[in-house]
Design the sequence.
């Protein structure tokens, strides 16, 4: 990076707030995903004004800028392209206001998701979107990726919980979108910004809804001898009319991994388990728990256990939420997938994933938000072996092809980022993508902000990615296609 | 700035550090690939790390430190000033190990990285002289320790300290904070008790060896006496074996693994010399290190077996007492007590409930301190070596302390006591800071 740019960045943010030495920049070449690229500089903004000044400088000098929160993303959204400036918002981490009567909180983007809930539970409220990385990830990052989590089945994803944003545009202009009110006047630009993966503007202040803590919560653990029975239960529960707060599935391999980490009492000999959470008024929850247990047993569950106390309930959830990381106990590297399928296709998709796993000789563990049909197959590989690394990418592509074939999507909540940009052409037509590009250009015409992310460059995308492999299906007896 | 610029051994034009080091994975004690590769860089540790919370930069996070060690091992990053700075800044509180879903043994990684630094990096002269004096001359040698302590006692009690403090000289030299952190040296040292046996009072329930520690002998002899009293009152015969030395915790944390090994072998010889039910300590840092003797001596076949035997007997005094159950105390301490978890007890030894059980058993009303398992910034000699950062971490701790209403602060490690007392003093509070053993001692009617 040009030393005069570094000097100007230091003038804006302070001497200690700019990194430019290779030994330091190396630490900003990764996130929690697989892609790596070293930035040209890192700057830590401490105010909206500083963000605005950085953007103005970058626009003038045509230097790309990549916003970054905690770097827990899985799709490379915060990874630099070219010699970009990484704009860290981690130091803008103050909760500005907790407005209990209006059920709103106003936060800076660097506030850690769980810390907001921790600050509001004493008032009887919490912040509902709960990505598994919630103890580390930032709300700014959640807004960029429109993050979900286990409890979004009943309560919705980030976009359903954000009512207002302060945004710095690439030219340094600061705009206000929405506010504390439920509905915004004019175009709903707040909703439009959430999930734009840092390609439209830098979010510097966020107004979120606070959700009342439920009176009663119950967690059930349904244990199965076959994956199919568990998958069929997911469909049966939603058909029964009960919408659980969360409905998660782990296959047997994942169960053993997770149990080694948390010792929560997950049955290590199970082929699959469902983690089902019900919340609301005490009587309703108890009735629903009975109804759900009955459905599970009808679908050949071996056993349905109720979390015996709050401690065990927390442990079960801790296991689920740390499932990705727990894989590190058995494999040096893994590649997390984030595909979506209609939930009725869960049984068949799992069979297909197993076929792909055998074909490439790679272990694939499954942990996912079954209620939403949001799969997270984890492909295990050893990054020191180039063949395995390549195969993991091929297997991932085949899994995505399978999701699309079933009318699903290539991402449920982790975003497109760098990782899945090449797959966008498989999901959208050129016309669809062109509209997206035009919208992006209205805010970020020169692609200063997070370039080469999410939306592929239309003229080149076909050549870069090549056609998706055709999904192969081998019929499995007794399963609906 | 392509990847090739960092090929091992190829000097890069981007390197600011002139000493380009060869891959450091060949160094003795270097962390193995197996140890490092359990980290899948998910980042769930970040917000549990006290230095990340203060600095918000990746280099001072557990994930970032592991990444740096990996780069240094592969020769992609020099074993230079930047690396040393970020590894030095780690408190070693291992709160990240609690947060880590992959079971990364971060504490072991950072201790090995520090060994690499000691073996492959030349610190500035003044640091080398001070470190050598402290680690090799003062703490392992009780005679020198006693001499240095006497000098300090003279400084503190002759009125010189008051004079110097008033003169503003300390502020001028930038060491005013350090002066506050120096422990008050005792009138009578505990060295005189080493070699003695204290009989059990009442029905005998056990026989233990007591680790007297190093600084405890000269600045916390009262605490050591209290601990012995509580144990004997509980029917335990307490031996304080002659010849015992420093446990080597500070050496291991500083990367001086050979020195730590020598101290470990010595203590194994002394403490396994007689048949004790347990070896107990009232210092969380010592205890956690002594429970790691088997890791320290993993490549020493002559000692590994005995190191494991030693580890099996090693107990924190709160762990030991909660395990055998307390004899009813003479009086109840009816005060509201906020308990701060020492990192080396809660995180390194996973001992959280036992000290609280003991406090409840003597009638204390426990007040839960928010973030009680987060480091106070003491961390051995960290508050002296990394004073500025340590004070920022303490600042956060004191915010939590003042957010609750209690009559006193309790903890179970002397380092934490010194740090918390400095924090209390800085804020002008009148909150006493006590060790759990001191409170128990009061409940049993004192010495």
Sequence:
């Amino acid at each position: 990076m040009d030393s005069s740019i570094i000097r100007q960045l230091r003038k804006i943010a302070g001497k200690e707030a700019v990194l430019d030495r290779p030994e330091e920049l190396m630490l900003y070449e990764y996130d929690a995903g697989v892609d790596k690229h070293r930035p040209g500089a890192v700057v830590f903004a401490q105010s909206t004004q500083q963000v605005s000044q950085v953007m103005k400088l970058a626009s003038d000098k045509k230097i790309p800028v990549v916003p970054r929160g905690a770097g827990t993303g899985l799709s490379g959204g915060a990874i630099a392209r070219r010699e970009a400036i990484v704009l860290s918002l981690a130091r803008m981490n103050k909760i500005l206001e907790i407005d209990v009567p209006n059920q709103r909180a106003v936060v800076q983007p660097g506030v850690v998701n769980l810390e907001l809930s921790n600050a509001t539970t004493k008032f009887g409220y919490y912040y509902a979107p709960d990505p598994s990385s919630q103890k580390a990830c930032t709300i700014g990052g959640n807004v960029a990726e429109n993050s979900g989590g286990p409890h979004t089945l009943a309560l919705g994803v980030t976009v359903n919980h954000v009512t207002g944003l302060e945004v710095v545009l690439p030219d340094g202009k600061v705009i206000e979108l929405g506010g504390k009110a439920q509905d915004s006047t004019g175009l709903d630009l707040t909703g439009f910004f959430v999930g734009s993966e840092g390609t439209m503007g830098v979010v510097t202040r966020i107004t979120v809804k606070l959700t009342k803590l439920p009176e009663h919560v119950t967690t059930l653990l349904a244990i199965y001898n076959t994956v199919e029975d568990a998958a069929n239960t997911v469909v049966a529960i939603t058909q029964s009319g009960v919408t659980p707060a969360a409905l998660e599935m782990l296959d047997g391999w994942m169960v053993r991994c997770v149990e080694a980490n948390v010792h929560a009492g997950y049955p290590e000999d199970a082929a699959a388990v469902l983690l089902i959470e019900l919340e609301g008024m005490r009587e309703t929850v108890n009735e629903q728990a009975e109804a759900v247990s009955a459905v599970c047993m009808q679908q050949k569950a071996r056993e349905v256990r109720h979390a015996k106390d709050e401690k065990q309930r927390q442990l079960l959830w801790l296991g689920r939420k740390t499932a990705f990381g727990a894989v590190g106990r058995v494999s040096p590297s893994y590649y997390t997938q984030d595909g979506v399928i209609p939930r009725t296709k869960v049984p068949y998709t799992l069979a297909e994933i197993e076929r792909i796993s055998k074909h490439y000789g790679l272990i694939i563990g499954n942990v996912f938000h079954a209620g939403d049909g949001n799969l997270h197959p984890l492909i295990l590989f050893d990054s020191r072996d180039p063949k395995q690394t390549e195969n993991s990418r091929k297997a991932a592509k085949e899994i995505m092809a399978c999701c699309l074939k079933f009318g699903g999507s290539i991402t449920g909540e982790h975003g497109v980022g760098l990782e899945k940009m090449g797959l966008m052409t498989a999901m959208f037509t050129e016309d669809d993508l062109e509209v997206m590009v035009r919208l992006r250009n209205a805010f970020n015409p020169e692609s200063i902000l997070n370039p080469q992310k999410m939306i592929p460059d239309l003229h080149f995308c076909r050549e870069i990615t090549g056609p998706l492999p055709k999904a192969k299906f081998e019929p499995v007896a007794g399963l609906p296609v | 700035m392509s990847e090739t610029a960092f090929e091992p051994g190829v000097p890069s034009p981007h390197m600011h550090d002139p000493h380009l080091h060869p891959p450091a994975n060949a160094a003795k004690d270097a962390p193995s690939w197996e140890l490092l590769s359990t980290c899948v860089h998910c980042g769930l540790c970040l917000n549990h790390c006290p230095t990340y919370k203060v600095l918000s930069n990746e280099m001072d996070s557990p994930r970032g430190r592991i990444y740096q060690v990996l780069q240094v091992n592969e020769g992609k990053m020099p074993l230079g000033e930047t690396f040393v700075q970020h590894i030095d800044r780690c408190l070693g509180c291992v709160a990240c190990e609690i947060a880590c879903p992959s079971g990364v043994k971060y504490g072991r990684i950072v201790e090995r990285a520090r060994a690499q630094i000691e073996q492959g990096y030349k610190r500035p002269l003044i640091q080398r002289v001070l470190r050598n004096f402290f680690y090799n001359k003062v703490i392992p040698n009780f005679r020198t320790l006693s001499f240095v302590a006497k000098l300090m006692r003279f400084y503190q009690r002759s009125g010189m300290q008051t004079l110097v403090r008033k003169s503003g000289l300390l502020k001028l030299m930038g060491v005013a904070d350090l002066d506050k952190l120096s422990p008050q040296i005792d009138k009578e040292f505990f060295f005189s008790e080493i070699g003695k046996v204290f009989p059990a009072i009442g029905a005998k329930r056990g026989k233990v060896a007591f680790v007297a520690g190093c600084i405890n002998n000269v600045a916390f002899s009262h605490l050591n006496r209290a601990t012995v009293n509580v144990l004997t009152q509980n029917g335990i015969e307490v031996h304080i074996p002659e010849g015992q030395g420093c446990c080597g915790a500070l050496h291991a944390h500083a990367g001086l693994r050979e020195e730590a090994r020598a101290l470990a072998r010595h203590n194994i010889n002394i403490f396994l010399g007689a048949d004790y039910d347990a070896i107990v300590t009232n210092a969380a840092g010592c205890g956690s290190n002594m429970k790691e003797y088997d890791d320290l001596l993993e490549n020493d076949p002559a000692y590994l077996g005995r190191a494991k035997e030693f580890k099996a007997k090693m107990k924190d005094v709160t762990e030991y007492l909660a395990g055998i159950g307390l004899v009813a105390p003479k009086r109840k301490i009816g005060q509201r007590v906020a308990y701060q978890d020492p990192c080396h007890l809660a995180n390194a030894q996973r001992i959280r409930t036992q000290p609280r059980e003991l406090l409840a058993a003597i009638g204390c009303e426990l007040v839960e301190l928010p973030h009680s398992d987060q480091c106070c910034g003491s961390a051995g000699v960290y508050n002296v070596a990394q004073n500025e950062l340590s004070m920022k971490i303490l600042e956060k701790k004191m915010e939590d302390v003042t957010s609750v209403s209690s009559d006193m602060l309790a903890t179970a490690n002397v380092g934490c006591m010194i740090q918390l007392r400095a924090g209390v003093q800085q804020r002008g509070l009148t909150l006493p800071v006590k060790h759990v053993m001191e409170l128990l001692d009061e409940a049993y009617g004192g010495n």
Summary: The longest strand of chain A covers residues 216-224. The interface with chain B takes residues 19, 21-28, 30-32, 38, 40, 44, 70-72, 83, 88, 90-91, 93, 110, 112, 114-115, 133, 135-137, 260-261, 322-329, 332-334 of chain A (CB under 8 Å). Residues 14 and 464 of chain A are 40 Å apart (CA to CA). Residues 95-212 of chain A form a domain with the Uridine Diphospho-n-acetylenolpyruvylglucosamine Reductase; domain 3 fold (CATH 3.30.465.10).
